[in-house]
Structures are given as structure tokens and as C-alpha cells.
Amino acid sequence: MIETAVVDLPEKLARGQRLLGIDPGSKTLGLAISDSALKIASPLDTIRRAKFAQDAAHLAEICSERRVGGLVIGLPVNMDGSEGPRCQSVRQFARNLSEKAGFHMAIAFWDERLSTAAVQRFLIDEADMTRKRRSEVVDKMAAAYILQGALDAIASHAANSDRPAQNDGIS
């Protein structure tokens, strides 16, 4: 597996490639896609999980169609920052994509704490969606929330590394 830091993802991509955000749940995979400039995450799809081979084939098809060069996978870290069994499961899923399904692309993990809760709050408070409609979109919206967090970190890192050294007035 080619695990990399989120801020190093752009250098792993060929020109025009995009990132796919994945919010892995036990029953579904929420998916989001970035634009080729790596600025904006958009909700894409929700895959009802089946056997791993089927899920991987569906993801490979999306990656090919959408020119995906890297993955940002939500990591369900505990509130105290520790990693439990769910994190181990997500890391194994990523390893399986790489080792069993032949995904030879950079994979970064993004702390997804509270992403689903934040999206649920938005869908209730701002979008005024019914419970049924929320259940249809929450996974791909959570994936977009995760991917947007990673894209914002990439942009912030790029802005800070492009800044010239500041003169602190000491000669």
C-alpha cells in the first residue's frame, strides 16, 4: 500500500488527476470526488457494500472513469484520538484495495471524527431534509466533508510552503 500524508497527495498525482474520498461504513461506502485543481469536493455516490471483490471492482470502475489518482479514506478515530477496531478494519480495507485489488495509487487517511454528525446537523438545520432523504445522501455527503477537509489541508500546506521567509527584524 502506498500510504502517504494528505499534504503529499498532490505530488503523487499526474496532471489532471483527482482524488476520491471514501467514507467506509459497515453497510455502505460513501463516495466523493475532487475537481482536478484539488479545491472542491463533491458528493458522488453511495455504494451498498457487498463482497469485497464487488466493492473493489465498482471503485476501480469509478477511478478509471473519473481519472482518480489517489484516495482519501475516512478513519474513524475514537474521540480520545486512539484507534480502535473500526480503524483497524478501515486500514485493512485500504490494504486489501492495494494488495488484493491492485489499486496502485496513493492512499491517505483523514480523521473523520464527527463528520457524519456534522453532515446530519447541516441536513436537518440548513437543508430541512426528511429522515428518509437524509438516509439516502448522508454517506456521500460525509465523504465530501472528509475529502473537503483533506483538500483544505492541502491548500493550507501549499499556501504556507509558498510563503517567503519572514524577516523578523534581527540582523
Automatic annotation (TrEMBL):
Main location group: cytoplasm
Subcellular location: Cytoplasm
Domain YqgF/RNase H-like span(s) in chain numbering: 17-119
Coiled-coil spans in chain: none
Matching SUPFAM superfamilies: Ribonuclease H-like (SSF53098)
InterPro entries: RNaseH-like_sf (IPR012337), YqgF (IPR005227), YqgF/RNaseH-like_dom (IPR006641), YqgF/RNaseH-like_dom_sf (IPR037027)
UniProt xrefs under Pfam families: RuvX
Protein keywords: Cytoplasm, Hydrolase, Nuclease, Ribosome biogenesis
Source domain of life: Bacteria
GO molecular function, one term: nuclease activity
This enzyme's EC code(s): 3.1.-.-
GO biological process: rRNA 5'-end processing
Keyword flag Glycoprotein: no
One CC-aspect GO term: cytosol
Function: Could be a nuclease involved in processing of the 5'-end of pre-16S rRNA.
UniProt xrefs under PANTHER family: POLYNUCLEOTIDYL TRANSFERASE, RIBONUCLEASE H-LIKE SUPERFAMILY PROTEIN
Protein family according to the UniProt entry: Belongs to the YqgF HJR family.
This protein's name: Putative pre-16S rRNA nuclease
Gene: ruvX
